[in-house]
Amino acid sequence: MVAALFSLPLLFIFLSIGRALLSEQGNLASVGCHGCLILPTLQHDLILIAIFLIASILWVKLPRYLRWLALLIQIGLVFAITADLIMLAEFGMRLSWHDVIKFGGEFKAIKSYIEIKLATITGILTLIGDTILLISWIGHLRAANYLGQQGIRWLMMSVFACVLLYMLPTMTHHPLPWLYRNVVEINLPSGVDQVYSQTYQAQLKAHYKPPPWVCTQGLGLRQNVIIVLIESWSWYHSKDRLGIMDATSHLDQLAQKGTVWTQFFSNGFTTDHGLIALLGGVVPLPAVNRYHSLEGYAGFDKLSATLPQRLAADGYQSYFFTTGDLNFMDKGTWLKKLGFHHIEGDDHSFYQGMPRFAFNAAHDGWLYQRFLTWLDHEVPRKHPYLAVLETVTTHPPFMNPETGQQGEQAAFRFADTQVAHFVKELEQQGFFKDGLLILTSDQRALTPLRAAEVQAFGDAAPALLPLIILGGSFNGGEPITTTAQMADMPASLDYLLTDRSCQYQGRGNLFTIPPKSPQCILRPQGDQRDIIDAYCGTEHAQIKLDGDHTRVIKGHLPDAEKIIQRINLQRILLGIQNIDFTHIM
Question: For the whole model, what pTM was predicted?
Fold first, then answer.
């Protein structure tokens, strides 16, 4: 019975060690950290084990009709600890209450993800692990009841030991405390939801001077443009680039055939961030309470100078194609407000009867076939067009949809083959006579950073994305090493395709000769939601969001006062989002 009493706390310790080893991948492994997080992770998790044991004592001591209180505490802890480990293993991110609230109402997407995951080896192992956890939990409570006062004494001594060890100074110190802190500590209130005072807002609006709006003569190519956003495509998938994974051999060949940008920065860590930056032309800074809301596009639905709007002024028509669910986070409505003339998703008749995967999506091959059909029969003949294709197949859980083979490499090899077929079809149809194809990603994959990425890219490793352009003068181009960002794509394409392009001073242009780097690239972090990374030339700084007291906490930020004022003003103008839990009821 004593063994049964302590079986579950011991399992929690093993889970802590597992989380520590997962957290060491990437940033710490690259500097020789092998096991350096185990002790601090265990130390910070001990307080959760202590709370769990206190709940076990209450389970024994409370009257039967109040025991549900103790059980509720334990259910919450077990869910949080296990879900945190699963999130880290699957997406390379810690569990955030904000994300639970944000995505909790997307039952269809969650259901499709679980169904696919349970068919994988890791999904089955997770299910077995959860079963062992449940059996140990039941055994623990039964043992606590059976042992009575003696069991309570052992539990009390264990609680005392856990609390004492937790209160000692942290055994290891390094600049990434979110890696070893427990799931409750990382979810304590942070500055990202700190409201700006009315006094500060009035002063900022009265004195802030935005950078000049600068207009330049464009190149006026008026070519048709296709942008393909390959879900989660990252540099580590390329054998040529980093040698980690040989998953994109065809894309590697296309990079040699066209022009590749080696320093292309994302402006966020999720798909909605990528779309806001690439199509909206703004950095997706979080509004106050942004991460408590499912409305990922709120505040960005009244943008001016979006990519479709810019090109529409010169006669372009814009089209958006995906096999994903346009109702997810109300993306379809937002795209209409962005200025797209036509939008298609998973409910289009072309996909009727096809197998569905994550987000109810048919696989990428069918997306490309649908677009080629549109190109044959529905493309506007009197207007140049912009077409954006958003893929889904390479979203976790990773799987080759044709063979059922599990794994990230299998999924990306399938997607890579489909892109190659698509490019070949475009060539046969003569698209490249007057068209450009842009291949990029929506975000770096939500997987742990690889040590080789950190060694190659340094602090920029979480932010860098592949970017390849094919067609016209971009064929056979030299790799471009100038830094660029997603948010500069609308103005840059406006410059390339039309006669006149306007942009705020300090922003970049991908297509001038030579390309122009932005003064600073801003990117919200996914793990520490109150931190904004700033990449300014060779400098990297971190900005802590904290309402009126938003400030630089690491590194050197050139022209820091103006940049922080610009961040604060954008967040103020986004407004305070309502915290709404009704979508998960």
Answer: 0.85
